[in-house]
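input
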Amino acid sequence: PSLITIDLIEASSRLAKALPESASVKILKRIRSLGANVFLNRTVVKEEIEEVYLKDMAMQSKTVIWAAGTRLNPLYKEIKGLEFAPNGRVVVDGFLSPAGFPGVYVVGDGAATPYSGLAQTAILDGAYVSGLITRKVQGKPPVPYMPRKNAFSIPIGRNWGLFVWGPFEMSGVVASWLRYVIDIKYFLQLLSIKDVIGLYKEGKKYAKMPDTCETPTQIESTETKKEENSNSPVEAPEHKNL
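output
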C-alpha cells in the first residue's frame, strides 16, 4: 500500500463558517477521524511545484486542490453606475435590480443578497426573476424578493453525513442516507431511472476503497503480516459485503 497524507488548510478559525459552530466542530472531528490533518487560521500564499507556501511555513505537496472562494465576472466593474458592496457584489434593491438600471436584474453570486454565493440561492434568484418578468408581462404588481435560508447536506466519508436546516442539526448514518435521497431526487430530474441505477452501481465500485488515510505504522504492520502469511498455506480470501 502507498502512504497518502491529506492536509486541509483553512484560513478562518473554523471549518464551514456558514454553519453553526456546533456543526463546524462535528465536521472537524469527523475529518480528523478519517486520518486527514486540519490546519486552521492558516492562509495559503502561493503554490509552486510540489510545494505549498503558508505565511509562516512551507509544505511539500503532490496534488493541490485550491478552493479559495469565487471571483466575480470582471464585466461588472466595466459597467458604469453600478454600486458595489464591500464584498465586491452588486448592490440591488428589493427586486434584485441595481439602482439606475430598470429592467436589469443581478442574480446568484453577483448580487449582494443574504446567502449569496451558494447554488441554492442562485436557483432561487433565477426562479424569482423569471416569475417577476412573467408578472410584469401579465400586468400584475411585482412581489418583493424574499431571501431564503438554505439547508445543508454534507457527506464526509462513507456512511456519515451532516444535515443542517436552521436550528435543526443531525449527523451520522441517517444524515448520509438523507443525502442519497436528495441526490436521487435531483438525478431523476435529469436522467431516467435506468441511468440513475447505473450511476449507483458505478459508485459502489469505489465503496470498496479504504475510508481512512493509512499511517506509516499501519502500513508497516500490514507489510509484516504479509511476510508472516507468505510462509503459511495459501487460503481462499475472505469476502465481506461492504
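quick obs: The first strand starts at residue 7 and ends at 9.
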